[in-house]
Amino acid sequence: MATLIQAEKAPDRVLSVDFFRGFTMFMLVTGITNVFHELAHNGMGGSVIAELSRQFEHAEWNGLFAWDLIQPFFMFIVGVAMPFSFAKRTARGDSYKTILMHALSRSFWLLALGFMLGSDRNSHAFQNVLAQLSFTYLVAFLLMRTDFKIQIAVSFGMIILSDVIYRVFPVDGFNQPFTPDKNFGAWVDLLISGHLSTGHWVSFNAIPTTAHTMWGVLTGMLLMKDWTHNKKLLVLLIPGTIMIITGYLMDPYIPIIKRICTSSFVIVSGGYCLVAMAFSYWLIDVMRYTRFLNFFAIVGMNAIFIYLFSNLGGKNLLRGAADPFTSRIFFFMGDVGKDVVVTLVVAAMVWYMCYYLYKKKIFIRL
Hints:
Radius of gyration: 21 Å
Low-confidence stretches: 1-10
Number of domains: 1
Structural class: mainly alpha
Helix content: 55-70%
Shape: globular
Number of helices: 16
Number of strands: 0
Distance between the termini: 26 Å
Order of helices and strands: HHHHHHHHHHHHHHHH
Largest sheet: none
Mean pLDDT: 90
């Protein structure tokens, strides 16, 4: 593995990586899923829309909906891109020390931005995906040049360690591993911030979900290999399918809970990451179905910027700008119809911002 990512020549671009990252960011930042929520909330669209709306929400506690996979996908695809970036920097002559300093700097800024998004003058928290990623990214980077068996062992070791700690933690009131706000993760947040989080999310999630980024790194290394398409697909699909089945089979004993990232959740969501990457690779790089590649890839090219813009109120600003026009132009559609239209318009505006930056060759990265 070490010789692979230190190749003298940078690897050819794998288009499915751009597609996967862009699709994940498009779903995460544009608010397009609100269309289903608005329709379902007003009893429109029947059972199909109602089910789609439910899938685009987080499970309240035990369970797994499609929306619960977006953060694992995001952390996974960051890992996938890391070996490509490492090889590119090595090919242009950067030393390992230089690349390490860049990784440390990036990890620091991810933590700072995540802290900013999750805190105010009265409280602070580290549950934000960027704060979580600052840890998972750095650990994955530091282990990237080790043998793949070591990376696999460490990733599962962190999952198992987290599971054990939740079960044996001795403090009364916080020794119920699968109870909201009564578990080890809740105690950690109380210790570091003085309060519990809204929605039962915990900062300790960064430990077990490091596996997602590490598995992404191994996937990136796989995609860089000079193997046949079929062999790469099998290496992704077989473990991915086994992990999905295993995660669901674990659920009666270790509940699938995203909000505290139980071992069953990390494993089943990691399996979905591998299967989704396999599908993207088959669709884009094998079948060469690239019609919508650029549409999604453009969003992923400024992922951090557009994520920050959306989470700092940018979408609300755009909605306020678009609503006076859409509400008058589409007055005949009623309140629900106008809300759906403005949601679509805002999603288009967010995408166009990414397109504008792309056309101007402006790429804001850490």
